[in-house]
Structures are given as structure tokens and as C-alpha cells.
Amino acid sequence: GASxxxxxxxxxxxxxxxxxxxELFEYNRDYxxxxxxxxxxxxxxxxxxxxxxxxxxxxxxxxLVELTCSKMEMYHLVGxxxxxxxxxxxxxxxxxxxxSIAPPFLKACWGMSLASAFTYIILAVWLSxxxxxxxxxxxxxxxxxxxxxPIPGAQQINALNA
Length: 162
Fold this sequence. Notes:
By secondary structure, the chain is mainly alpha-helical. It is 90% helix and 0% strand. The protein contains four helices and no strands. Helix 1 (2-92) packs antiparallel against helix 3. The longest helix is centred in the first third of the chain and has 91 residues, at 2-92. It starts with a helix and ends with a helix.
């Protein structure tokens, strides 16, 4: 009798401990897998947001380069037109009524002012072309060296698998 009851109580106690341990393990395992899924989702969202952030940086650089190049193209166009007018005035402007009867020192001042205008306009056209090329090359350098898309390394990928 009594020893059988003890053994039955012991078996029942061990079965209760086993059932409780199994429930605790299953409970902990469910929350562990839920936490792992949440961590993986969080890391993936962080990587996606980082890629979108760098995409925005790259788009900003492209926009700034395009803005500079388009402004320089406009300066180039206006400079070329003013240069054409300067050459026309220099070559065909001598037939103007007032310059043909002007004293020699006024003709010299007129010629020097046209020559200096020509020089400054050539300089403006050259600098606008130089600024456009510089902006384009600097934008390319920024995009290829400093604002590259973030690619996760092997260590980050392994951390996601853990």
C-alpha cells in the first residue's frame, strides 16, 4: 500500500514537472521565434531605409549637378550670343556714322573697349564650360566614391541568420 502510493505520487509529481517543463519550453520557444522574426523584420527595415536614404543622397547630388550644368549651359549660350554681337560690332560697326567721323583717340577707345569686352566674354564662356565639366566630374566622383549604396557585409548577413 504505502510504498505504492508513494511511487504513484512520485510518478505523478515527475509527470507534473515534465508537463510544466514542456509547457515552459514551448512558451519560451514561441516567444523566442517571435522575437527572432521581429528582429529580422527590424533589421531588414533598417537596411531598406538605409538604402532609400542613400538613394535620396544620390538623387540630391544628381539634382545639384544638373542644376549647375543647366545654369552653365545658359551662361554659355548667352555668352556666345554676346560674343557674336561683339564680333559683329567690331567688324561691321566701323560703318556707323558717328565712328567714321570720330577723332582717332575715340576710335582707339572704342576698339579697346570692344577688345576688352571680347576678352571678358571669351573668359566667361570658357569658365562656364569649365564649371559645367567640373560639376559633372565632381558629381561622378561623389557618386562613385562617397555616396555608394550600402551593401551589407558578410558579418551583417551572418548576424541576421543567428
